[in-house]
């Protein structure tokens, strides 16, 4: 029975008394978690997920307080009333705003259920809350689950770079994934533990050498050992079933295949996709289009001589900076990022 059908039954067959009507949908033999779908009868049958888990203590309280600053998500806790349980001493109730689109609501609930099922942690709640925080970023940015054309092109370029780095650093998969900080609104797309960084740019025009710099910090080397600018030239094509051009979902599946034996890396990667606004449930929106890498990556060393605008040289009265950068006179430092980045 689908999640939607379970909620429909709960609302149709609502019982008298109590706050929640519930349906157990998943649990594990080790009693680490129970996942329960519920309607809150005191809130006009609002649909939610209840998680019966070990109490995460102060660590989870801090995360929950942060999540609850956003109107779209509400996490509440209360003691488990079942005296027969051992070690499972807290209910975590997670609700979404009633105005959440139905498809996104069910995608959220499904993701929470799968996160509990796949967690390797004894404190499952910490993985749950980490994933909820990714959803929090998704809702905070008012994303719809479907990226714009420019968003798809930019993500394809960043994921192409990510895949290259993962394939050549299979002993450090989690380090590579956590170095992809673009989805977290950092100044550069990749910042590695040794403070080397990569800013990824792509162009779909015929001019390989002109890229748009979105702010004065993207090419700012402050605090970095070294910064590289990696430029791809891409074309987006309408594709057929047998097309050789790779779609965005295909590229994501390739990356997940690399990460399949590393739960933490795969878990973080899926959270980062949420941060950029990509929902797996909406992948049908992307399957008709593929991407051709015409050139790249052309990698430039952003040193002190590299042309750029920096905050230190800009008046504080200027609050927003965007500019187009012509790279035609700049020497391409390399075409192989793996030779430049060492973890």
From TrEMBL:
Q: Name one Pfam family in it.
A: DUF4420
Q: Which domain of life is it from?
A: Bacteria
InterPro entries in the record: DUF4420
What is the protein name stated in its UniProt record?
PD-(D/E)XK motif protein
The scientific name of the source species is Patiriisocius marinus
Query: Mind giving the lineage of the organism this protein is from?
Result: Bacteria, Pseudomonadati, Bacteroidota, Flavobacteriia, Flavobacteriales
């Amino acid at each position: 029975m689908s999640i939607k059908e379970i909620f429909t039954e709960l609302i149709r067959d609502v019982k008298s008394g109590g706050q929640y009507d519930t349906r157990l949908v998943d649990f594990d033999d080790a009693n680490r978690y129970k996942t329960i779908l519920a309607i809150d009868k005191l809130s006009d049958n609002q649909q939610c997920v209840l998680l019966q888990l070990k109490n995460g203590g102060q660590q989870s309280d801090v995360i929950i307080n942060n999540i609850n600053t956003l109107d779209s998500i509400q996490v509440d806790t209360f003691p488990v009333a079942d005296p027969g349980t051992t070690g499972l001493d807290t209910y975590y109730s997670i609700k979404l705003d009633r105005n959440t689109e139905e498809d996104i609501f069910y995608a959220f609930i499904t993701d929470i259920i799968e996160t509990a099922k796949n967690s390797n942690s004894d404190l499952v709640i910490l993985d749950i809350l980490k994933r909820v925080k990714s959803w929090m970023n998704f809702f905070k940015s008012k994303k719809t689950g479907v990226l714009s054309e420019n968003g798809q092109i930019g993500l394809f370029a960043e994921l192409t770079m990510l895949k290259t780095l993962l394939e050549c650093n299979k002993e450090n998969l989690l380090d590579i994934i956590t170095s992809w900080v673009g989805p977290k609104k950092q100044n550069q797309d990749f910042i590695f533990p040794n403070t080397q960084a990569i800013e990824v740019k792509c162009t779909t025009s015929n001019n390989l050498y002109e890229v748009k710099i979105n702010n004065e910090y993207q090419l700012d080397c402050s605090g970095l050992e070294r910064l590289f600018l990696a430029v791809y030239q891409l074309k987006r094509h309408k594709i057929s079933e047998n097309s050789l051009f790779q779609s965005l979902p295909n590229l994501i599946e390739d990356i997940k295949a690399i990460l399949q034996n590393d739960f933490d890396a795969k878990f973080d990667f899926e959270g980062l996709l949420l941060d950029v606004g990509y929902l797996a449930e909406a992948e049908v929106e992307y399957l008709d289009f593929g991407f051709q890498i015409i050139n790249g990556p052309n990698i430039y060393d952003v040193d002190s001589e590299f042309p750029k605008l920096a905050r230190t040289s800009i008046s504080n009265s200027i609050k927003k900076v965007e500019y187009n950068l012509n790279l035609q006179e700049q020497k391409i430092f390399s075409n192989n990022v793996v030779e430049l980045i060492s973890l």
